[in-house]
Amino acid sequence: MTYRLGVDVGGTFTDLLLFNTQTGESWRAKVPSTPDDPSRAVVEGARSICASAGVSPADINSFLHGTTVATNAVLEGKGARVGLIVTTGYRQVLQIARSFVPGGLAGWIVWPKPEPLADLEDTLEIGGRLDARGGEIRPLDDEEIRATLMKLKERGVEALTVCLMNSYVNGVHEKRVGALARDVCPEIPISLSHEILPEMQEYERTLTTVANSAMRPVVGKYVRNLAGELRALGVKGRISLLRSDGGLISAERAQEAPVNLLMSGPAGGVAGALWVAKSAGFKDILTLDVGGTSTDVALIQNGEPRLARTTDVGHLTVRVSSLDVKTVGAGGGSIAHVPSLTKALRVGPQSAGAAPGPVAYGRGGDQATVTDANVVLGNLPESLIGGAMKLDREGAIRAVRKIADEIGVGLYEAAQGIIDIANENMFGALRMISVQQGYDPREFALMGFGGAGPMHANAVGALMGSYPVIIPNSPGVLCAMGDATTRMRTEIARSFSKRRSQTSDDEIAAALSSMAAAAREQLAAEGETERDISVRFEIDMRYFGQAFEVPMTVDIDAFARGGGLARLTAAFDAEHRRLFTFNMENEPELVNLRTVALGKELNLPTVEIPKGDGDSYRAKMRDHEIWIAGGAKPAVIYDRARLRAGDRIKGAAIVIEMDATTLIHPAFDAHIDAFGNILISPQ
Amino acid sequence: MPAEIIETNSTPLKKVEIDPVTLDLIENALRNARTEMDATLFRTAMSPGIREQGDAFPMIADAKGRMIVGQFGSFLAGFLKAYDGAIEEGDVILLNDPYSCEGAISHTSDQLVIMPVFRNGRLVAWGAMFGHMTDIGGKVPGSLPTDARSIYEEGMRLPPVKLYRKGELQRDILNIACTQSRMPEWYRADLHAIVAACRMAGRRVDELCDRFGDDVYHSATEELLARNHRAMKHLITTMIAEEPVTFEDYICDDGLGAGPFKIKCTMRREGEKVILDFAGTDPQSESSINFYLNENMLKMFFGIYMIMVFDPQILFNDGFYDLVDVRIPEGSLLKPKFPAALSCRTHALGRIFDVLGGLLGQKTPQFLNAAGFSSSPHLMYSGVGGDGRWFQLFQIGFGGIPGRPLGDGPDGHSLWPGFTNVPNEFLEKYFPLVIERYESAPDSGGAGLNRGGNGIHMTYQVLEAGTISIHDDRWFIPPWGVNGGAPGRRSRKIIERQDGSQETVSAKVDNIHVAKGDRLHFITWGGGGWGDPLARDAEIVAREVRRGLVSVGGARAYGVVVSPSGALDAVATERLRADMRAERNELPLFDYGPAIGKLREQCMAETGLAAPVQPSWT
Q: Which chain A residues are within 8 Å of B29, Cβ to Cβ?
């Protein structure tokens, strides 16, 4: 027997999911996270899940891991001290940034400017200079470079970044600095901007490369510790990490380019949703991952999640592909408040987090949160996590009543208001990735997961018109499921910048095929079997003179046969019209070529649950009452573990399981599919 | 004749009761809609001015034309009053003549697109947006002629015309407009982008009406305006004194050798109303530095400054307008008489913010910031490239944010909302330029407990012969410091010719010829300092020397002694600070630097330029 183990480290819990790759049988576990050294909880969880499944760690042949260690290094400012080498005249590239001040007119008065990721004291200039075509204006001076490197070494930098002007066209100068650095300071890891991000725009390229450098020592240490402890536990298989773009990368390569791991955590949720959707037969899905402090949303069309070309973490925006996950500060712990001036009801972005948490958790919280509002309304009736914790309803009522008094409405109206506003914030995020991108949400199903997703998914689905609303099994550990079920992925991009009339089908076919070979080689080097690797291509298009590109999927054969360019142009015109309501007369420009190589797709059998007789009576726990849509309504509480395939549930109802609670609204019906997913639709 | 709105459905929109939650939902949805307008614009526009830098401003208004979301206040009241014609469903209005809309837009470079949103035959909203086009014709590339004596020299002037009539694009009008521009492709693309953004607003309002009902939507906008009115009333009565306060600041020159020009404002409260009176502002200029200031726009500026501190989540809208009374003398720099030239109004527009800050800060220290980057310096560079193609760059520069109660002013940043700089690699790829330096100018930010932000020192090497224009200010009157902080350094522009000679370029000038290989140093001004510089942590000053933000000499303005490598000499610092404390007078609330007479005397020696001559009006 061989097994795959997926592990997702969250702020509060570390979730694990163990798969038997022959039978598809799975086990789940949840252990408290250990933020000081996250690998401890991972190893502890692995030990305990193996014990409860009766599996030897030696039988785990794939260990797959979504981690926020890189993200937290950025958010908590715990990255390494980075030395930065730039072109003369550009020392302050990170200090000036893009000159952008957020917050609208007069926003500068209250904007706290973040400190640059590489200290100006650790930023030094060298004289070599290339022009915009890659030609040399001024040669490098090796002696100057050696002296510069020595100075940074003496200053005690822990990682090194080189970002020179126009290196996206020609990396020759950066390469030379890299070679000298390996000689002068071989112990310091070095990141070259043209390798990390071969794209125009010096600030974005510098920032992305510096971010990579800053994370290298932290991520490197974490990965080495983790690998060591897993080996000590007896795990012999391959250790891979989930990248921001939803693909897997070997732990070794992850250490060199950790900037690719910034969205590793949320990417697990999207990957998990993909897996569930595939087996349940849905191709177009919006995901709604609601945690304690925030909500992540993403769009999956035709079985493919949308990718974004940038990754945002805190105030940091780096140019790295990631699943287009939008995050809003609305979660179960989001705090409701009423500013005295406007008397408006606001929810979040402040959060009670895990500590002190919502008032109802009885851990010292005293401000009303979204969870408290759910408790007041009766939506969260029982104890959380299978009975381990009792909710303090009286405390929740006290906190929500305070809000109610401030805005001058009744207790239940205030609680409903808090929920409605939290839902609206989630709705806003979903709109950004759907309607705003030209997708009609009514053509998508909505999958709700994370600790609080199943509670809000029905309401948000109704706002979006997205049906059915899908609540997968074990919604609280779906990220770990995603980690366990994805495949290897690598991406090679290059800037092309040619107008249609300046290139040919042949030229593009040749370029794509050489990139494909390089991408295949990378995956093969990571242990993927050559024949299991599949490759696909994208070209970023725009009208000449525009700055934003529209990524278009292309077929290499169309270029090899001829006619590919014509087809691409027509498809781009159609896409531009769909997105922006008009086309332009300017010639289309092919901006970037991109190749994505994918490893073998996992072929796990999916486990069906026993069939019932369509009646959900056997799962009924008791009758209950919730406050919804302006009044008290009867609602039945069900135990999810006792639901059977084919069961139907009439709303209003509440379904309880170990790690989440699902709310089904009145005038909605739920249906349990063959795999145990709850599918909610209007009656 | 005011505009006639053709509605086929005469049922009036009803005012209905609205619960606070629905109100918040609609408020948030409108906020999102505005963001979507921006996103649409930036993704499809072509000129770096709009696309890279963000020189465009969206708005959604109610049926009466009052702004519900946006940032410059509604420009519709003036338009609706002045437009003599019918407006029907499917119409899209285009205009750029400031005199046709009471200054709703203030120079012809800004193209304003206005789109009524109809539903079921009734007008329910307006979407509108204006954006600065790189070129609209006229006597100089960039269409901002410093020496224009009337608006007739400032390129195309469009009264309100229908770009779309009942949904039909009027190609003739589009072609006429594009033909005026030296950059017709950019004009066309940017205009398309602005219209697409307005359509986005229309779509979103329509969806909101679908979701909540027309009457609920209408009532919600009324209530949002009312909520804003209540909040501002509270702020005004608690924060603004009845006793008048006055503040004045200057535009350095008019580009024709005269200056400085005074902008003066007196603020007082009468009951719940605040009065902003610009009596004492200098008369209009002969050149194009006049700023046709729309009263509503000023009310919005004032309101935003007030609200920013208390509930930054509030949606700014037009609801409080009747609480503010703005009085601007006819024929002044801020209300010039037709056909005065207006193109270079950016300096006066910017200076208004320093004046507002100075007014509010006098009695309410929580508002008091130093003077800062209150303008947007422009560079135009154009010519014919080696490939025979016309190239034309319009670039907005940035500088030092003022020292603030919150802390230091950021270096080389923008005071304008949403603006960003153009990546230098982009400039080098698409224009015949090498950008040799893009750094902040050490010591240019005024010394203070909180330092003023440094201006930017940008060095362009031109690779093709061409002409440049410069629009800049704060070269003569320094940006003032507050609460004991020192003024920031003034701006400078220097051309280094291939033969090694150097010349100082004046702040407002067109048609300077540059030859291949010439270098232009464009050095913007710094923000004023905030608070006593001698109280600044000496370690921070030393660190800023090591960071290259303050020079060894510059550190002495803080009473700090450092070695050439930036090591702090604590003993010498203590001594220097004691001496400086003993010698100085009481710290002033505002430090304007030397008096104007003194500045004139030292002008040539300090700036390399002749002092401006006191303007005279007959």
A: 424, 428
